[in-house]
Amino acid sequence: MKVRLSNFNENWVRLYQDEADFLRTIFTDEIVCFEHFGSTSILGLKAKPVIDMMCIVKDISKVDLYNDKMNLLGYDVAGDWGIPGRRLFRKGGEERTHHIHFYQTDNPQIERHLIFRDYLRCHPEEVARYSRFKEELAERFENTSEYSPAKKTFVREMEELALSWFSNNQENN
Question: How far is CA 108 from CA 13, 36, 41, 85, 173, in A?
Answer without folding.
Answer: 25, 17, 20, 10, 22
